[in-house]
Amino acid sequence: MGTINHFKQNRPVHLALRDVYYEQANKLLSSHDPRAVQPLNAAEYEEILSILRTARKHGYFAARDNEKDGQFCDFINMLAGNVKAILSMLNLKHSVEAKDGFFFAFLDVNRASVALQAEEYERRARDIICCLLNTLDIAEEAYSKLKQNDLDALGPTEKKRYEKAAEHHRELIKKRINPPEYRKRTSMFF
After folding, report:
1. Are 143 and 149 in contact (CB under 8 A)?
2. Hey, where are the domains in the chain?
3. Which of 53, 51, 66, 50 is nearest to 11 (CA)?
4. Under a CB-based contact definition with an 8 Å cutoff, are residues 184 and 94 in contact?
5. I want to staple 154 with a disulfide (CB 3.0 to 4.6 A). Which of 48, 52, 63, 158 is the partner?
6. At what angle do helices 67-97 and 11-30 cross, to 10 degrees?
7. Residues 29-73: tens digit of each pLDDT
8. What value, to the nearest 5°, has the Cα angle with vertex 76 and ends 74 and 82?
9. Helices marked H in 63-155 — which ranges?
């Protein structure tokens, strides 16, 4: 009796989770209009980052000899880096705007100067969002091909496992069980 290769055995489940979480992150990112008037909500980007990290983790577990699987994981990692950059800009904005923050105390500036600086950080965050949305548009066809190739490589039983895992996690996402909580960082970058 041979040994069980758990990575091969669980590949359909990991592929399903990679796809479901990537598609959810894509959906959430695409639902944000960077030109909208309302301020950006850092909590939403914390959730997107968490979802991308989950997609990346399962992507690495599902990756095999296929070079495209590994490249897709690197792509998800790049998307997560962009979301971190958005969060960094929003954190800087919040730090600058804080009434008891260092901007007032150290720089001895007035409220108007601070408002301009905070506005600049939010503008940078919006620029990153525009770039991210363009990247997702460009990646749409490549992702569709990768997903189809991965599904075509699965046997009938594996496809059933894929679908079952995908459906279960789509339901969990709809319920938004334990979304990450945004807390303004107490220090700038640590």
Report:
1. no
2. 11-175
3. 66
4. yes
5. 158
6. 40
7. 998 887 887 888 888 999 999 999 999 999 999 887 678 888 999
8. 105
9. 67-97, 102-107, 111-152
Please say if the pLDDT value at position 101 is more than 70. Answer: no
Q: What is the DSSP letter of 176?
A: T
In angstroms, rounded to a whole number, what is the distance separating the alpha carbons of residues 69 and 47? 24
Q: What is the CA radius of gyration of the chain?
A: 20
Alpha-carbon span 122 to 24, nearest angstrom: 24
**Per-residue buried b or exposed e for 60-75, using 16+ beta carbons within 10 Å of the residue's own CB:** bbbbeeeeebeebbeb
Both tokens assigned to 107:
């720089």
- 172-176 long-range contacts, Cβ below 8 Å, gap at least 24? 173/20, 173/21, 173/24, 173/51
* Contacts of residue 14, Cβ cutoff 8 Å, sequence gap at least 6: 58, 59, 61, 62
